[in-house]
Amino acid sequence: MRWLLSFLLTALLGTVQALSITGSRVLVVIDDVAEKDKYSQFWQDLESRGFTLKFQTPKTPDLSLLKLGALAYDHLLLLPSKSKGLGPNLTPNLLVDYIQNKGNILLTLSGDGSVPSSIASTLLEFDITLPPEKNSVVVDHFSYDKNSAAEKHDVILSAPPSSLRGDLRSYFHGARLLAVPRAVGQVLGNSNPLLAPILRAPETAYAYDPKESEAIEDVFASGSQLSLVTAFQARNSARLTVLGSAEMLENKWFDAKVLGRMGGMQVPVGNREFAERLSMWTFQEIGVLQVGRLEHHLNEPAVKGSAVSSPEINPDIYRIKNDVSYSIELSEWDVDSYKPFTPPGTDKLQLEFSMLSPFHRLDLTPTSKTLNSTIYSTSFRLPDQHGIFNFLVNYKRPFMTNIYEKRTVTVRHFAHDEWPRSFVISGAYPWVAGIGVTVTGWVLFVGIWLYSKPTETSTKKTQ
């Protein structure tokens, strides 16, 4: 019955929510509002998915990301700016605060102009480094579009991105080639585990400043060191996506056909499909996990007097060496509805039963499914150790929102009537009688010894 109620609640949420699980308000910051027509197909795609767009410039006086401590917009889309800064309303501190309040940001760059210093400073907060040259672009002399970049080689042709690892789900994979015009490459630091590259530069690409007249001897970065599209997911599951080429979102590159260096037929690009998937992930329309019902209980029925009932659900206290079961219900939001969650590839969902360190680390196996969720369960015996323990599911993977579910319980010793030699167990009578005889004999001995008067002896005085 409980699982049925959870299923009905999940289904109801799926019908009333917008396509994005966090909201539908999008603020688009653009230098010149008149230039928004260049991205009209992208705006149409967003509006068709239920988003409400508001266009403002960095100089708009009433521009505000937070109002009274709450998000004024659920999502922020920053298009490239030609000015050195974005003004007092879009400082690095305010952008970081926006993410800390669970706002999502799609930040785009362009090699057609210098990157504002405030944007470069913001990216450094997330351990993302941009080339020191202000006009740096990524070029590739082997994989480029012969139609539009026959001389500059700055329109890179790249295969659709694949999964980082075999046990991770790829949300951005497509069937067609991608055209990445005049991209700004990013170098990701090794100290931030929350960063993940979505699209890396080809092995023959490198960062280059077209205004440099001298030959290049030491490049900033090359090959897979450069990320063209980068994802950052905070611990609160807010998302930041850095798109190195804002031109990928323009109409002309949604409908473009490219010609590779080796010639042949012109091939249509998959930029529109990629932009759709990228915005869907950034605005939390895909890759969002939700926890439904969570239960832990004894494996044995509860006995009260002569009545036998089902065990208590989620009790606060257990006894050492109890056999317990644990189950958790998980769903994944996919565009417009919840569906049962299944870890990708060979990945496993695990439960830790820990105090200071895990005493058990067990795989959770799917035991049942509903229309919108999967129920994972496991059973185990509690350790022979009393104390404060946690049932912990800590599932954190790139491109998926984090699951951190902890339930704290007390594990106690055996009670006095639970030991095999307890007074209330008839089989313990010989030991109880032996203890009684020993105590009685000791008390009699002490009493006799204390109250026994020694005999008087007479002594004669000698003169």
UniProtKB/TrEMBL annotation:
Pfam family name, one: OST48_MD
InterPro entries assigned: DDOST_48_kDa_subunit (IPR005013), OST48_MD (IPR055459), OST48_N (IPR055457)
Keyword Membrane: yes
Domain OST48 N-terminal: 25-282
Spans traversing the lipid bilayer: 428-451
Membrane-related topology note: Single-pass type I membrane protein
Places the protein is found: Endoplasmic reticulum membrane; Membrane
Residue ranges occupied by any OST48 middle domain in the UniProt entry: 314-453
Signal peptide: 1-18
Chief location: endoplasmic reticulum
Alphabetic keyword roster: Endoplasmic reticulum, Membrane, Signal, Transmembrane, Transmembrane helix
Listed GO biological process terms: protein N-linked glycosylation via asparagine
Any one annotated GO CC term: oligosaccharyltransferase complex
Family statement: Belongs to the DDOST 48 kDa subunit family.
Record's subunit section: Component of the oligosaccharyltransferase (OST) complex.
PANTHER family for the chain: DOLICHYL-DIPHOSPHOOLIGOSACCHARIDE--PROTEIN GLYCOSYLTRANSFERASE 48 KDA SUBUNIT
Role according to the record: Subunit of the oligosaccharyl transferase (OST) complex that catalyzes the initial transfer of a defined glycan (Glc(3)Man(9)GlcNAc(2) in eukaryotes) from the lipid carrier dolichol-pyrophosphate to an asparagine residue within an Asn-X-Ser/Thr consensus motif in nascent polypeptide chains, the first step in protein N-glycosylation. N-glycosylation occurs cotranslationally and the complex associates with the Sec61 complex at the channel-forming translocon complex that mediates protein translocation across the endoplasmic reticulum (ER).
Name this polypeptide is given: Dolichyl-diphosphooligosaccharide--protein glycosyltransferase subunit WBP1
Organism, as annotated: Myriangium duriaei CBS 260.36
